[in-house]
Amino acid sequence: MATDAATIHEQGLGVTQRHDAWWAQPIAIASALIVFIVYATFRAFYNADYELGHGTSVLPEHAYMLSPFYSPLLGVPSWMPAWIGPAIFVMWMPAGFRLTCYYARKAYYRALFLDPPGCAVAEACKHNYKGERGAWIFQNVHRYFLYLAVLLVLMHTYHVIDACRWPAADGGMRFGVSVGTLVLAVDLAFLSLYVFSCHSMRHLVGGRLDCFAGTAARESRYKVWRCCSALNEHHGVYFWLSLFTVGFADFYVWMVSAGNIADLRLF
Q1: Which residue pairs, CB below 8 angstroms and at least 24 apart, start in 138-146?
Q2: Reported pTM
Q3: How far apart are CA 158 and CA 152, in angstroms?
Q4: Residue ranges per structural domain of the chain
Q5: Residue 196 CB neighbour total at 10 angstroms
Q6: Which residues are bridge partners to 66 per DSSP?
Q7: Interatomic CA distance for residues 230 and 226, integer angstroms
Q8: Region label for 59, one of left (φ > 0), alpha (ψ between -120 and 50) or beta (otherwise)
Q9: pLDDT in tens, 213-250
């Protein structure tokens, strides 16, 4: 069906000739984002029940487990207000990476700002559209948040390894895996897929070249670029999976640390 885009634009927000339930996706996305933001903000200021295991006062016979919201765990200066906890010094990094993510921009522009609500659906009439300039120019820092996100992947890897080191009777450490270990490992896997499927990562490993042929180094970059490109096809899926798993991993550590559930050791 032909669509008079100019007429739709002038008629105002939400006008469309689509007959499907186009509104379902933005409502679902907005709901998911709002729930996660509220939960993450609450946990950032909760400042309790974010670690357990060896070296702590909570289940010292357990392997060390740290909520991914607090990784890496940084000390808070004594002069800081009590309501400021370790997560405040960490969560700005993944939050900045996700906020400026190319996929996330599309998701929250449509779901939260209705700009536009969907394909072939009119947004509020704007005669002064300037793109991501002005106040929105901060989106260009995404490539720099990528470097911080890679560091977070390394830190989460370290903490997954920590979750496999259980105190032994002789005072040493031995290998072991619990349900909590798997929860943190799954979160690490989806975080890694999300980070390494990033558009900026794809450009970082394969950009600024007119030709990949010629040297072994360029051919190696081509192989890495192809791998990132294959992952990039599902970048949006990894965004949502990693968002869910990081929230669930924090919730799991919270529940175990608070004594509400027991972390079953598998071997």
Answers
A1: 138/100, 139/100, 139/105, 141/96, 141/100, 142/97, 142/100, 142/101, 142/102, 142/200, 143/200, 143/203, 143/204, 145/93, 145/96, 145/97, 145/100, 146/97, 146/195, 146/198, 146/200, 146/201, 146/204
A2: 0.89
A3: 10
A4: 5-126+137-197+234-257
A5: 21
A6: 51
A7: 6
A8: left
A9: 778 888 888 889 899 999 999 999 999 999 999 999 99
